[in-house]
């Protein structure tokens, strides 16, 4: 604090809490400085509690609560949630602030989340820097607000709005809440603390104290509970906490519970959920993602990438171009013909137009974005590019021709990347004079939506090229994962193994519908056979045909092959593993099931029907087994990256953490026993020996 009238009364080095007093000792300013995000840890709670307790007896006019650094308190310290809850608990601190005899004012900036918002709601007044984000994101961690945040919001802004905050977990802009009981003043420019101090000074003693608990009242709003529940469940994607919280809110609303009673019930549910498997997995996912982002950006030896070239304006090329444009980078876009280029530009525009229609973008934004793009049919134009990404179709010879041309026309320092999903990047690198600057950048379709990007290190790729690509991945707001060269790299290789097991289970007499239902009830965003229909069954069929040296793949994939050979390519032909009506609705297909059954007969496969749980387990064991093989071969060097791949590339349920987390939870001994059984039942080629101790 720079106010010359202030005197520092107290400073705790460990928690970074500082108490200053000003205005002749009548205005106390408590400042929290606990980087990176002022998460409210046990120590912080304890310090704040002592401060408020000791200030209560002093002759003050008011207290200002503020934070330094990038944000106000961004929540309870999530790291503490894997241990027993430690006293003092947040509700105790909050109760002390609510009962504090003089007004307490919170000055907010950054991301005021979870316990941070609960703390702010305990105060009598809230000022916020314009665009501050306010949120109760607890449900994203499989828990609910545990210190009365939902109740206080119900009281201050109504039940509907509280449901929106607490059951969807989506942060909202403070500006939208100005002049409500949530936000009393916005700060557009100037120093927040200075303006908060003058706000405090203007408070008269008669108007100043609020009481959200004694005045707890939530009557008078109509809520369509059925449709609200449907929406909340849909957004929750299998996480139980949002619907449980909604039930609580409904009970409070319909039974007219007191604040105290309602808080007790919510606290109980919070503690119960905190220890649930879902919450543990979601915390694992949170910290695994943070670790990934930190690793990807923690290096200084990266090159500068300002201008990017993209070769190819097909579907993948359009998505990739959009990633760079959205990151504000200059783009040079190459296609073979003017016609193909214009088609790509048109598709790019159409993608943005749909955002304009939904009100997520303006025409001016579109113009600004299109200004970044320059199209051409000649490679010479790529000369200024620091990076060129090739997004032509999946053919090794075509890619080699392109890379020869890129090597010739791009500046010496340019990094050359291929977006191949399967092909051998080493042999692509060899056709250039700069194999150390050739790398794989494997985007997932649709490239501008999917958060995963594989950074493929070829035999000779230089370290600084990998580091530059990892940092670029974060800049593109993706999760970049470094992988080595093998067929399908890490992601598609695991996906192929998963698909192969699904096909085997089909051949063993488990129906199309039973398998899809088992996997969606496990939590996968879509059943594996529905996914095949959606992406086109012929795509995998053609890729496997090129891999005829892997005969077991061909045998295993007979159900898919049979679909293709009978013209059932998936949704695009209105028929695949399912039938598709003119309305687009998906229905079961006896014809498809018959094709599968015939294949099983031809291969003399003994039926082996499984329960839904056994189907899920076989599919997961296949993923764990392939993942461990990938680790053993050194294709990926950190097992948690395989979970990132599945969370962000294949719609794996976040509340299950990822396949390797699933395996680790089951435990090495259990996994070993199950893999041995499968090895015995099938073969060691399909279920090879792997180093189980890597599961952690
Ligand atoms: C809660 O509050 C429950 C209550 O109801 C209590 C009831 C009793 N704890 O993301 P970043 C770390 S539940 C501990 O890279 P950004 C993060 O791991 C909580 N650590 O920065 C990273 O560490 P490192 C509700 C946390 O600017 C560093 O901070 N709150 C926490 O891109 C920087 O993070 C939430 O769910 C935390 N709460 O984004 C908020 N938050 O440097 C979760 C962050 O070692 N957090 N860290 O890798 C976020 O959404 C983002 O981190 C935030 C900042 C938007 C705050």
Topology:
Blueprint: E1 7-12, E2 17-22, E3 27-32, H1 42-55, E4 62-67, H2 90-98, E5 104-108, E6 111-113, H3 115-122, E7 125-129, E8 133-135, H4 149-157, H5 159-168, E9 172-173, E10 185-187, H6 192-202, H7 225-236, H8 241-255, H9 259-274, H10 277-297, E11 307-311, H11 315-326, E12 330-334, H12 338-357, H13 363-371, E13 373-376, E14 387-390, H14 396-409, E15 415-418, H15 425-430, E16 438-443, E17 452-457, H16 463-475, E18 479-484, H17 491-507, H18 512-522, H19 528-535, H20 537-545, H21 551-556, H22 558-565, E19 579-580, E20 586-587, H23 590-602, H24 612-632, H25 640-649, H26 659-666, H27 668-681
Parallel strand pairs: 3-4, 4-5, 5-7, 6-8, 7-10, 11-12, 11-14, 12-13, 14-15, 15-16, 17-18
Antiparallel strand pairs: 1-2, 2-3, 8-9, 16-17, 19-20
Helix pairs in contact: 1-2, 2-3, 3-4, 4-5, 5-8, 7-8, 8-9, 10-25, 11-12, 17-24, 18-24, 22-23, 24-26
Bound molecules: (S)-3-Hydroxyhexanoyl-CoA.
Pfam family, one: 3HCDH_N
InterPro entries: 3-OHacyl-CoA_DH_NAD-bd (IPR006176), 3HC_DH_C (IPR006108), 6-PGluconate_DH-like_C_sf (IPR008927), ClpP/crotonase-like_dom_sf (IPR029045), Enoyl-CoA_hyd/isom_CS (IPR018376), Enoyl-CoA_hydra/iso (IPR001753), NAD(P)-bd_dom_sf (IPR036291)
Protein name: 3-hydroxyacyl-CoA dehydrogenase NAD-binding
Describe the overall structure.
By secondary structure, the protein is α/β, with parallel strands linked by helices. The protein has three domains: 7-272, 2-enoyl-CoA Hydratase, Chain A, domain 1 (Alpha-Beta Complex), CATH 3.90.226; 307-484, NAD(P)-binding Rossmann-like Domain (Rossmann fold, 3-Layer(aba) Sandwich); 492-694, N-(1-d-carboxylethyl)-l-norvaline Dehydrogenase, domain 2 (Orthogonal Bundle). It is 47% helix and 13% strand. The chain is built from 27 helices and 20 strands. The strands form four sheets. The chain has an eight-stranded mixed β-sheet with strand order 13-12-11-14-15-16-17-18, sandwiched between helices. A hairpin with a 5-residue loop joins strand 19 and strand 20 (586-587). Helix 2 packs parallel to helix 3. It is globular, with a radius of gyration of 29 Å. Residues 36-37, 39, 74-79, 90, 111, 113-115, 118, 137-138, 141, 145-147, 290, 293-294 line the site of (S)-3-Hydroxyhexanoyl-CoA.
């Amino acid at each position: 604090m720079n106010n010359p009238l202030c005197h520092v009364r107290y400073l705790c080095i460990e928690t970074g809490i500082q108490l200053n007093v000003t205005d002749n000792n009548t205005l106390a300013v408590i400042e929290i400085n606990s980087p990176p995000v002022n998460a409210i840890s046990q120590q912080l709670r304890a310090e704040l509690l002592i401060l408020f307790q000791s200030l209560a007896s002093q002759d003050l006019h008011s207290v200002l609560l503020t934070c330094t650094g990038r944000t106000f308190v961004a929540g309870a310290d999530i790291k503490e949630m894997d241990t027993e809850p430690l006293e003092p608990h947040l509700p105790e601190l909050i109760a002390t602030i609510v009962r504090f005899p003089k007004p307490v004012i919170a000055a907010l900036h950054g991301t005021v989340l979870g316990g941070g918002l609960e703390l702010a709601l305990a105060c009598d007044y809230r000022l916020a820097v314009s665009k501050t984000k306010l949120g109760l994101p607890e449900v994203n961690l499989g828990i609910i607000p545990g210190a009365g945040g939902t109740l206080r919001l119900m009281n201050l802004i109504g039940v509907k709005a509280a449901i929106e905050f607490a059951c969807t977990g989506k942060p909202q802009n403070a500006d939208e809440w100005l002049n409500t009981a949530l936000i009393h003043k916005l700060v557009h420019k100037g120093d927040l603390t200075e303006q908060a101090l003058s706000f405090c000074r203007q408070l008269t003693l008669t108007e100043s104290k609020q009481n959200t608990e004694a005045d707890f009242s939530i009557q008078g709003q109509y809520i369509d509970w059925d449709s609200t529940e449907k929406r909340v469940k849909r957004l929750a994607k299998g996480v139980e906490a949002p619907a449980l919280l909604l039930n609580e809110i409904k009970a409070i609303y319909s039974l007219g519970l007191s604040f105290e009673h309602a808080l007790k019930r919510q606290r109980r549910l919070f503690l119960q959920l905190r220890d649930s498997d879902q919450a543990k997995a979601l915390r694992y996912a949170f910290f695994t993602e943070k670790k990934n982002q930190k690793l990807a950006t923690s290096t200084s030896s990266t090159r500068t990438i300002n201008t990017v070239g993209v070769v190819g304006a097909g579907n993948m090329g359009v998505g990739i171009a959009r990633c760079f444009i959205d990151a504000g980078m200059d783009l040079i876009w190459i296609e073979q013909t003017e016609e193909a280029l214009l088609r790509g530009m048109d598709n790019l525009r159409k993608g943005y137009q749909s955002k304009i229609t939904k009100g997520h973008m303006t025409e001016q934004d579109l113009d600004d974005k299109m200004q970044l793009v320059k199209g051409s049919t000649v490679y010479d134009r790529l000369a200024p590019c620091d990076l060129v990404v090739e997004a032509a179709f999946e053919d090794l010879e075509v890619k080699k021709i392109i890379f020869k041309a890129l090597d010739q026309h791009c500046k010496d320092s340019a990094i050359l990347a291929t977006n191949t999903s399967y092909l051998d990047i080493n042999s692509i690198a060899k056709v250039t004079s700069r194999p150390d600057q050739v790398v794989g950048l494997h985007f997932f379709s649709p490239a501008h939506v999917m958060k995963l990007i594989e950074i493929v290190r070829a035999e000779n790729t230089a370290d600084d090229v990998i580091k530059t690509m990892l940092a670029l991945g974060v800049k593109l707001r993706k999760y970049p994962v470094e992988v080595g060269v093998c067929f399908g790299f890490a992601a598609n290789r695991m996906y192929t193994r998963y698909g192969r097991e699904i096909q085997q289970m089909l051949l063993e007499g488990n129906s199309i519908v039973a398998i899809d239902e088992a996997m969606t009830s496990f939590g996968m965003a879509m059943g594996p056979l529905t996914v095949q229909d959606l992406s086109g069954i012929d795509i995998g069929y053609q890729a496997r045909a090129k891999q005829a040296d892997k005969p077991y793949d061909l045998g295993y994939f007979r159900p898919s092959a049979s679909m293709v050979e009978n013209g059932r390519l998936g949704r695009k032909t209105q028929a695949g593993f399912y039938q598709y009506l003119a309305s687009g609705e998906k229905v079961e297909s006896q014809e498809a099931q018959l094709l599968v059954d015939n294949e099983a007969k031809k291969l003399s496969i003994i039926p082996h029907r499984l329960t839904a749980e056994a189907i899920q387990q076989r599919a997961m064991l296949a993923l764990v087994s392939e993942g461990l093989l990938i680790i053993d071969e050194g294709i990926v060097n950190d097992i948690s990256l395989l979970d990132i791949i599945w969370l962000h590339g294949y719609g794996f349920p976040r509340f299950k953490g990822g396949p390797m987390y699933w395996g680790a939870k089951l435990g090495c001994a259990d996994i070993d026993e199950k893999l041995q059984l499968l090895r015995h039942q099938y073969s060691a080629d399909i279920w090879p020996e792997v180093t189980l101790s890597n599961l952690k």
